[in-house]
Amino acid sequence: MPKRYFERLQTIDHLIRIKGTGKPSQLAKRMRISERTLYEFLKLMKDLGAPIEYDRYKESYYYGERGGFNIKFTKSLMTAAMM
Description:
Protein name: Helix-turn-helix type 11 domain-containing protein
Shape: globular
CATH topology: Arc Repressor Mutant, subunit A
CATH superfamily: Winged helix-like DNA-binding domain superfamily/Winged helix DNA-binding domain
Radius of gyration: 15 Å
Order of helices and strands: HHHEE
Number of strands: 2
Organism: Chitinophaga alhagiae
CATH class: Mainly Alpha
Number of helices: 3
Strand content: 5-15%
Strand order of the largest sheet: 1-2
Mean pLDDT: 89
Distance between the termini: 30 Å
Number of domains: 1
């Protein structure tokens, strides 16, 4: 997968956490992707356990629980000698 895919996922996650996505059409335009692609990202995130919901009054996606995605490599504290 291209790096851009993960960057988009992180951006969508950030906007959901701050409740600043706007309507789906606005978010897709902001992300420079189609609405269909946006819905595919949201489905993937939901499939991975994200409790994504939509507030029609505030016109924004949000997480039903606190949390977010952390997509990066984290070095282990274990040294090679311990393995």
